[in-house]
Write a structure and sequence with these properties.
The protein is mostly helical. It has one domain. Helix content is 69%, strand content 0%. It contains five helices and no strands. The longest helix has 29 residues, at 97-125. The relative contact order is 0.11.
Length: 136
């Protein structure tokens, strides 16, 4: 595969996912059948992304400063899809149906890994070297 063909493939994929995610998100936000709590979580994520205060400031941590933004955005998107009925989500998705399922599965796996990592980190920080949170 030539460099130009590969770039076109990456660009095409990026456009495919970006446009479908935008349409999905806007459609779900406008849909009256989606619980407002999920919509508020996404609104919070949007506000967090535009305010100049970050948990990990980009100004000080150039390459890792966007991690907190990504975590907030992905968590909000995961929540939005988890609280939205599959049929409603499919109605607002222009892409292939299997891609929406792949997106949901990837967000669930990502969320599970992040939660486990954070739980283990907290356990280590509070002095429980086993990686499990103490019940005492």
């Amino acid at each position: 595969m030539s460099g130009a063909t590969m770039t076109q493939g990456i660009t095409g994929n990026l456009l495919y996912w970006t446009s479908n995610l935008a349409r999905l998100t806007i459609g779900i936000l406008r849909d009256p059948n989606v619980p407002s709590r999920a919509k508020w979580r996404l609104a919070f994520a949007g506000v967090y992304l535009v305010i100049p205060i970050d948990l990990v400031p980009e100004k000080w941590f150039t390459h890792i400063g966007y991690i907190d933004d990504a975590l907030v955005l992905l968590t909000a998107l995961r929540s939005l899809l988890a609280d939205t009925d599959e049929e409603i989500a499919q109605r607002h998705w222009d892409g292939r149906p299997r891609d929406l399922q792949r997106l949901r599965s990837a967000l669930i796996r990502w969320d599970d890994k992040v939660r486990l990592t954070l739980r283990n980190l907290i356990a280590r920080l509070i002095g429980n070297g086993s990686g499990e949170m103490s019940t005492a």
